[in-house]
Structure formats: structure tokens, C-alpha cells
Amino acid sequence: MPLCFLSPRLPPPPLITCRVSQSSLRTLLPSPSPSPSPPPSPSSLSLSLSPNSTPPPSLTCALHCPHFELCSGCTHEFNLHRPAIVDEATKFFKSLGLSDFSFDSCKLWGWRCRAKLAVRGSSEHPLIGLYQEGTHNIVDIPDCKAHHPNINAAVELLKKGITALRIEPYDEDEGTGDLRYVQMAVTTYSTSLPAAERYRNGKVQVSLVWNSRNETSPNSEKLQALANFIWRNGGPRNNVHLIHSVWANFQTSSNNIIFGNRWRHLLGERDFWEHVGGIDISLAPSSFGQANTRAFDTLLRKLQRYVPLGASVADLYAGAGVIGLSLAATRKCRSVRCIEINKESKLSFEKTVDRLPNIVDSSISWHHADTSKEPLSWIMGSDVLVVDPPRKGLDASLVDALRSISSIKDKARSSSESSSSKEKDEKRPWMLRAREDSIQIGSKMTSEDSKMLPKTLIYISCGWESFKEDCEDLLSSKGWRLEKAHGFNFFPGTQSIEVLAVFKRGQSVNPKKKKSGKKKKRL
Ligand SMILES: C[S@@+](CC[C@H](N)C(=O)[O-])C[C@H]1O[C@@H](n2cnc3c(N)ncnc32)[C@H](O)[C@@H]1O
């Protein structure tokens, strides 16, 4: 089998890139680090622009993707470094009294390190990509500019395998065919490479979603043959080692849910490590992982500034606990509780905990639970609450609990006392399940801790519309005030941004009123 298709892939050439002049580069780049490093390519620049300033035309950054308009992935072609929604966000926060909303623009191309792609067409002409807007037609996107280049290289390799082995892509109408979807996730963390080369040389974890119940179903030998093909032609024995590992997921349902419940590790390394927020994190293919690794790292480092040293933290919608564990390590937290509905994330959490530096001495726990049920039990017991919900925003019951938090202040003692009496005779099935699936590392929270109410709420949002609603709901309760907000360019080419908003409990003290109060006293 000729292997010429596996030529080394470099990041996409700067077709049209930001036309950054040397002088503007000097003003935009951070001051040089003590150890000299090569100058970054324009595509790896991280620009921090004041949202109030209109970007100079010389910074107009274009996507220049051949699939634009056909594929539903990107909706905007120009000004990738500053989506128009930043103006709306700036106005929104200004109307709430915040005039220093900042926006960090990270990598503009090749930023996507995690992609779920549909596999359709035929074995002779496989199509691997996204749905065309409003249809069930798949657009093949071999030259996607958002993908890490090695995702595109792995897709090319997969197509070769499908054709060579006559694998039938899934047919939605008939429910026939073998390969339904593929998830490609890139790890950019290889300590055997110099730091500057790690991103470019990321390795791809390939998860094949197979249309059968399990690995003993008919056609499973084809699955193994495809995995072998990918590993033989992209694994460590090749000039270019592209593939990290191959996994299978089994799914036979006729709905649109991508993954089934059954996962099998087939080839390569089982553990997938990344380094973000100052720690090594493990991510199983079944666990939630952020698509934009670099931008997530930027966000985590900013988030850490808002968490006092020694704080106790609850991380709600925690996935594999990346946020909470990053805080445990960098902010020396007294305790960290992670709450997550997907129990598949538990294993990744445990592996990450095992690799935390020895100096981390927090009480750490992970709970398999639905935050919308008994939200107060998750809110109480921490001084910092971090929420990172899916695009649809916070569950209504959690918003209600957060809104009511000032009025429950005085009841905290009795409610926690009653919760400890409930412990003896707990019957609620979701609480019992949560306990069974929970992990506790280090000592448990003391009963004194469990009475605590959060002073800080950190809201991380990928859904702008739902965030605005939740934010207004929280502020209208007068129980919370907004202190800071930052935006991050997590999804260049779209009108979505990631927002980090910091709320403080209680109303701000009006300094004028305070003064007049003092005067009265003197009289
Ligand atoms: C945007 S992800 C954030 C994950 C994690 N914070 C991270 O950055 O890796 C949202 C997470 O919320 C979880 N989730 C969704 N609804 C939930 C609920 N009602 N209770 C607990 N977790 C939930 C999802 O399974 C997913 O892992």
C-alpha cells in the first residue's frame, strides 16, 4: 500500500492572515520571556484588544476556507480576531455598570483540537464532515481551517482505510452501514518534544462510532481491520507519528445521539493527557473536553486570579473536574467538590487527581449528580462557586437557589443540620446514586464548612443568549452583583464567545451613602 498520503502535515499556510506590521507586532506581543523562544507565527498570536477600540484594518483576519458557506461550522469569514458579538457583549456589560469588559483573541486557525464528524457517502467516496445548515446532507471538509491540521490528516487517513477495506458509511434512512461518526481529539502535550513544537505535533485519538451493539456483532472484524489500518499507517512506526490511539464506540440507536454507552479501547495509548491550567489532565473519549485547548488554558489562568488562596470551591457542571482540580493545585484550595451528571467523567477525574503535585493538600471529591436536583446542597459548603453549564445555561432550579441565597443566610444552620439528619436515612434515589458514584480524596468537609454560603460565583458560559438571561435573573434578585467579565475567542469563525463573569454576593456599598451616614453620626 503506497503511503504517500501520509506526508508530514504542517499547520495551514497563512493564506490570508492578519497583516500585522512589525511595529504593531511589537506593541501587541507580550514582553519577551526570559528564555528566548522563536517568534510566533501570525496564526498563533494571542491578541488582547480593548473591545472599545475599533480594530485597525491591518488586523482584519480572514478565514479563507474553501468550505465556507457550505459547511455549518463557521458562520463568519472576516475579523476572526474580533467577532461582532464582542460589541454586543461590551454594551451589555456597560449597561450593567461594567466598562472594562476585556476580550482575548487566541489562535485563529487550527484551534479546534476536538471534532465530532459524521461519516456518510459510500466506501468509494466517503464524506466526513458536518451537516449542511438545516439539512441532513454531509459536507466533506478535508481542508477545514478551524481543525488542528492533524485532525484533517487523520480524516484523510481514515478515508483511505474506508475505501481500502470497503467499509460502508452509515445510511441514516436505511439504518444500514458500519461507520456512523468519528471523534478526533488532539493531545498537544508531549514532554518528549520542545514546548514550541508540541502543538504542531499533536497526536490524534480516533474514536470510531460503529453501527453495532458491541464488538462481537457481525462486521466487527471490519472494525478491527480499520483500526489496524489507521495504526499501521499513522502509528509510531511511521515517519510521521500522527495517531495517539484508536477507540470504538457502539451505537445502534436511530436517533441523533452520537455516542452509545459502550466504549472499547482498541490500539495505542489508553490514557490521553493534556496540560491546561497548570496541571496534567486526563480525558477519556467519553468525557467532555473543551475543543479549543489553548483558549481554555488562557481562561483557566485568568479564572485563577479570582479564587482566593485556601478557598473552598464547588465546581458545578464539572465534567472531569479540570477547573476544580486546576484550582486545587494553583490556589491551594482547602476543599474542591466537583459535581457532574455524566459518570463517564469519573475515571478521567481520578487519573488527573493521581497526577496532581504532591503538595496539593485539598479535600477533593467528585459527585455523580444532577445539579438541578437539590441545588442548595451543592451551593452550600463553599466560598467560591464555579458554574460551567452547557450552551442552554443554568438549570432553572439552580438559578432560583442562587437568587434566594441571601434570604436563606440565616437558615443555613438549621438546613445543614437537617441535611445531616437526612444522611442517616436517605431514601431519595438520585441522592443515593450520587453517593455510590462519588469519590472522596482527603478528609471530608467539616459540618462547620457545610454551612458556608459562597461569596463569589464564577460563571463560565459558552451560550451568550442563555448567559444574558441568567445574568439578569441573578442581578435582579439583588443577591448578587457583577464585578468583572472577560470574553475569550474560543470559536473563531463563529459568533460564539466564551464568557467568564465574576459575581459577588450581596449589594455593592454605595460610598456616597456611607459618607452621609457618617455625617449624621457626627451631628
Ligand atoms: C460545558 S461542559 C463543562 C465541563 C467542564 N467544566 C470542563 O470545562 O471540562 C458542561 C458539563 O455539564 C454537564 N452537565 C449538563 N447538565 C448537567 C446537570 N444537570 N448536572 C450536572 N452536570 C451537568 C455535562 O455533562 C458537561 O460535562
Automatic annotation (TrEMBL):
GO terms for biological process: methylation; RNA processing. GO terms for molecular function: RNA methyltransferase activity. Keywords: Methyltransferase, S-adenosyl-L-methionine, Transferase. Residues 26-51, 412-433 are annotated as: Disordered. The active site is at 462 (nucleophile). It is an enzyme of class 2 (transferase). Residues 31-42 have a biased composition (Pro residues). Its EC number is 2.1.1.-. InterPro entries: RNA_M5U_MTase (IPR053304), SAM-dependent_MTases_sf (IPR029063), U5_MeTrfase_fam (IPR010280). S-adenosyl-L-methionine binds at residues 290, 317, 340, 388. The keyword S-adenosyl-L-methionine applies. Belongs to the class I-like SAM-binding methyltransferase superfamily. RNA M5U methyltransferase family. This is Putative methyltransferase. It comes from Rosa chinensis (China rose).
